[in-house]
Amino acid sequence: MSAWETVKLAIVRRRLLANRIPEDSVYPLETWMAIKAVMTAKSERELRNIIGKKEQGEITRTDLNEYQLFRVREQLRYVKQNSPHYRDRLKDIVPDDIRTLDDLGKIPFTYPSDLADEPMLFMAVSRTKTAREFTTTGTTGKRKVIGYTTSDLISKIDIISSALKSIGMRGDDVLHIMFPAISAWDPSLMLAGACRVAGYGSSTCSSADITEQMDIMKKSGATHIIGLPSFIYRVTALMGSETDLKGIGIRKIISTSEPLSESMRRKLQDAWGCNVLDVWGMTEFGLACAIECDYQKGLHTDEANLLFEIVDPDTGKRVPDGKQGELVVTALTAEATPLIRYRTRDIAAMIAPPCGCGAKFNRKLVKPSGRMDLQFKVGMGYKIFPLLFDEAIFNNKDAVDYQVTITKEGFKDVLTFEVESKDRSDEAKASIIDSVSKIMEIEDGIRDDLIDVPRVRFIDIGAMEYSAKARKIIDLRGNFS
């Protein structure tokens, strides 16, 4: 490392609030949020007058609500002045009118299509001040561009460092980062940077070759893994018979960027002998937006940088904690591409605190059950999505991957599953058909005589080339969906 790089690293480390978390913190991620709220109140008179001069251990849920509402007002002023899109869209919005969570309903939503149609109009800084730009097509196929200033990047490194500390990583730990076939938004860049700044070791492998992944993991002395659950599952299914996975010494596996089914989680935990924790994030908001603790009952959210709402997808009205709806996120501190009330299309719910892990005021996100733009209707309009089938398919211990095609024969919907599996027996086929047929949406459709009995076709291991975020459901019915 050059002298200049050493200086830059030292500067970044001094700016990280994660490094101010006391060693005896019960839940470091929540402590980090409290530190940020307290420091903001010390520097901002308006917030200080609302929540008073408090120490981090005194922050309550009410205080955090006030911090978030203050940040919303400040962000509205910022985007109205600096973002061409919001300058026009929010011209009739008065920031000082946003005083309660219910007042958020006065602010119009931002849709993914808005960002895809005019990404540069969302930029609130000149491109010369943008340190990095990431792109994503998501599930729509339309390219979205997300900018990050240096402060934005440091903010993301800060939350990632805090999250890693919360799951138990310490100075001698090594995080193995495995994200094959992802280029537009490379999580490895942020994760490796966060590890470096926080003092953890890291190893990165972007190859889809599972043998190469295992070799690098072992040589680096990895103690933690993070990656796509579908790929980690593939490594587990194909290498588990050849390698003593428990003997490698992995203490935690972090699943991110794709839905994690409970059947997949159980198989991974059994194979590796450690907890598998889920993470929710989007390119639009960066990594580590929400992460599970060891209780695995909801994901702790980054409420210092983001405000989470659940709304009724049809009416747009906010729904109470515990009720399912569409997840809407507002960036509270973003500089380059600040997004206000962004409709994520994810179906989820929120859980009120506290949590058994020791967190007292942090709201949790119920693991998203699917995406609205990845849902398909079958039978009498029943909605299906990949996570439904993950649970059924991966209950079969020999299944490695699958894809389902929907066609129509006469008036019946036909679901045909192509399954990569070591066991290609009639018994295995019957077991998968039985599991899928017992899914409520499929079972009801079969009973109504509008869905045919599911069909299964086994294919060779490797015949289905691995692709990050590959579409699991292919609808060939034309206008029937």
Describe the structure.
By secondary structure, the chain is α/β, with parallel strands linked by helices. It has helices spanning 3-15, 28-43, 45-51, 61-82, 84-89, 112-117, 150-166, 187-198, 210-220, 229-239, 262-272, 386-393, 426-437, 440-447; strands spanning 132-136, 144-148, 174-178, 201-205, 224-227, 252-255, 275-282, 286-292, 299-301, 306-311, 325-331, 342-351, 364-371, 376-378, 382-384, 399-409, 412-421, 455-459, 473-475. It has two domains: 1-369, ANL, N-terminal domain (Rossmann fold, 3-Layer(aba) Sandwich), CATH 3.40.50.12780; 376-480, GMP Synthetase, Chain A, domain 3. The protein contains 14 helices and 19 strands. The chain has an eleven-stranded mixed beta sheet with strand order 4-3-5-6-7-8-9-13-12-11-10, sandwiched between helices. A hairpin with a 3-residue loop joins strand 7 (275-282) and strand 8 (286-292). Helix 2 packs across helix 3, helix 3 (45-51) packs antiparallel against helix 4 (61-82) and helix 7 crosses helix 8 (187-198). It is globular and about 70 Å long. The termini are far apart.
Q: What portion of residues is helical?
A: 25-40%
Distance between the termini: 56 Å
Total separate domains: 2
Enumerate the spans where pLDDT stays under 50 for 5 or more consecutive residues: none
Q: Please tell me the CATH architecture of the largest domain by its name.
A: 3-Layer(aba) Sandwich
Looking across the biggest beta sheet, what order are the strands in? 4-3-5-6-7-8-9-13-12-11-10
Q: What general outline do the C-alpha atoms trace?
A: globular
Q: Report the oligomer.
A: single chain
What portion of residues belong to β-strands?
Answer: 15-25%
